[in-house]
Design brief:
The structure holds 2 protein chains of 2 kinds. By secondary structure, chain A is an alpha/beta fold. Chain A is built from 13 helices and 10 strands. In chain A, helix 6 packs across helix 7 and helix 6 runs parallel beside helix 9. The chains are: A alpha/beta, B mainly alpha.
Chain lengths: ~280, ~280
């Protein structure tokens, strides 16, 4: 009897409409790295994220779009458990990364953050040299051999195209780089901890057009190796680089799907209004 | 009308700046004017000769050494306590925590406690523990005096730290301790300012060391021995009826001023050197 009731409960929690947002991505790719299920986030008494159900496919770029204050950044922060630092935030629901619920008890938060490289809105170099900035991650994660660290630093500085620009001055302060270079340095720093996903929180909004383009091209290069998830408020950027779009409004996922389909054939009226610029 | 207002306020501001500089120039001027003629090499390098309080032989090396020992010890002691405390309330406790509010409130109160009260408290503590007036007693009491100053100014600069940096460090998978280590580098100028404020307050204070460090004509060779201090030596010299000895008080004040200047310049120098890669 109880079992039957439980079964009924589980069935009623997942009505077909909720799975709706999952299905378009599912059709295209079956290998999601990140699955968010029934996620609710509260900050104090405010209900910030409401019943989020989204799957994010691996080795592609997923852009989270939506008007300001719709919870994009909050959603991104749940993925590397940065909300742990603020006790006012309460999280219900499940976030699976490689089939492991990162909010399960006994999951080490450091391991989760190691898997998720974060690129913040404004570049924030550590108060040390360019070299040490990139070497910081490997060092705290236990790599001691000088040769290995040298190799890693050079490899990732080359990867983000910074090596040739800073070759002669890797020992000088990172804060002397231009802001676009700093953002690439932060990307190299994030890559050096060998994550599986790259999270970008409006990572180009503080940059000039040229630096923005360089970073965007890097994202396109990165998606062959990593799962890239970007929060952006520029629709054009999403259209340029995204493979998949998640559109949020007032803490809910309104629609999600492959970029082409999303922009050319949106299913919901709200999405159409947003794309046509009725609200932003 | 608006123009006049602007002018008046500008005048008030310039006036305030001039007054401050004039007071400083007057104090330093008097000290140097009266002190420099009596400031001999002997005064700097010798301990007092016979009958110091009445006479004029020897120097104040005992007090110089005592002051430097006490302030160095007190600095080390108070840094060992203030840095962990400030890191704890800023990086480990949540932003609006009840506990950190209580700590800040008690620091504000301790900040306002007069130094003679610390002196008396230190003395009472020493009597209770059976310690005589000594270098150790002076160090502990001065540390109590400068700790709130240090913590409060450190706390202020730490709160001004942009939130991005801790977030960036945590998202790289740092533990809190690893994060704190990097943030301390960023905070180095603030720490130096806190140290300078504390040194300025601690080294010139006579009331705290009056009962706790005592006074002696010798340079202390262990923590258990009494130690002379420059503020007290100035106090005793000024109290002498002999004019030559009174002038030596100004010479002692010159030495004290120079020590503070050397300390603040070297602190600035080392912090800028240390922070090449900030």
């Amino acid at each position: 009897m109880i079992l039957a009731k439980q079964l009924l409960d589980t069935l009623s929690v997942n009505p077909v409409t909720e799975m709706d947002s999952l299905s378009p991505l599912r059709k295209v790719l079956n290998n999601d790295t990140i699955r968010i299920e029934n996620l609710d986030v509260y900050i104090e008494d405010q209900h910030i994220l409401k019943d989020i159900n989204v799957a994010i496919p691996e080795k592609s770029i997923t852009c989270i779009i939506g008007p300001s204050g719709c919870g994009k950044t909050t959603l991104l922060k749940t993925l590397n458990r940065m909300h742990d630092e603020t006790p006012e935030v309460r999280i219900n629901g499940k976030v699976y990364v490689d089939d492991l619920n990162i909010y399960d008890k006994g999951v080490n938060v450091i391991d989760i953050r190691k898997k998720m490289g974060l690129l913040a809105q404004r570049p924030c170099p550590l108060p040390m040299s360019i070299f040490d900035n990139v070497a910081y991650g490997p060092r705290i994660h236990g790599i001691r051999k000088r040769k290995a660290i040298n190799q890693t630093v050079i490899q990732y500085l080359q990867y983000v195209g910074l090596w040739d620009e800073v070759r002669g001055r890797v020992r000088s302060s990172a804060s002397r780089l231009s802001i676009g270079q700093q953002q690439r340095l932060c990307l190299a720093r994030g890559l050096a901890i060998e994550p599986e996903c790259i999270l970008g929180d409006e990572a180009t909004s503080a940059l000039d057009p040229l630096s923005t383009r360089i970073i965007e091209e890097l994202f396109l290069k990165l998606k062959h190796k990593y799962t890239v998830i970007l929060v952006t408020h520029t629709l054009r950027q999403a259209r340029r680089i995204a493979d998949f779009i998640v559109f949020m409004y007032l803490g809910k996922v309104v629609e999600s799907g492959p970029t082409e389909e999303f922009f050319n054939n949106p299913k919901k009226q709200l999405t159409r209004d947003y794309l046509s610029g009725s609200f932003s | 009308m608006k123009f006049l207002e602007e002018k008046i306020f500008k005048l008030i501001m310039i006036g305030a700046a001039v007054i401050i500089m004039a007071v400083l120039a007057y104090i330093i001027g008097t000290v140097f004017y009266k002190g420099l003629p009596s400031l001999t090499w002997e005064m700097i390098t010798r301990i007092p000769g016979g009958g110091f309080y009445l006479g004029k032989e020897g120097g104040v090396l005992n007090a110089t050494a005592g002051s430097v020992f006490i302030i160095t010890g007190a600095l080390v002691l108070s840094m060992l306590i203030s840095i962990p405390l400030v890191m704890y309330i800023n990086f480990y406790l949540p932003k609006r925590s009840f506990f950190s509010a209580i700590i800040r409130f008690s620091l504000d109160i301790l900040f306002g406690v007069p130094s003679i009260v610390y002196g008396a408290f230190g003395f009472a503590l020493m009597v209770y523990m059976g310690i005589r007036a000594s270098l150790l007693g002076g160090i502990i009491t001065v540390a109590m005096l400068i700790m709130p100053i240090m913590m409060r100014s450190l706390d202020e600069v730490t709160r001004l730290l942009p939130r991005d940096l801790p977030d960036a460090l945590l998202s790289l998978g740092s533990t809190k301790l690893e994060m704190t280590k990097v943030l301390l580098r960023k905070l180095m100028p603030g720490i130096m300012t806190a140290v300078l404020l504390a040194v300025g307050r601690g080294i010139g204070d006579a009331a705290t060391v009056l009962f706790t460090a005592g006074y002696t004509d010798n340079i202390p060779s262990s923590l258990g021995q009494p130690a002379a201090t420059l503020p007290l030596s100035i106090f005793f010299q000024l109290g002498s009826p002999v004019e030559e000895v009174q002038n030596r008080a100004y010479a002692s004040a010159v030495i004290l001023t120079i020590i503070i200047l050397i300390m603040s310049f070297s602190a600035r120098y080392f912090s800028s050197k240390f922070l090449k890669n900030k």
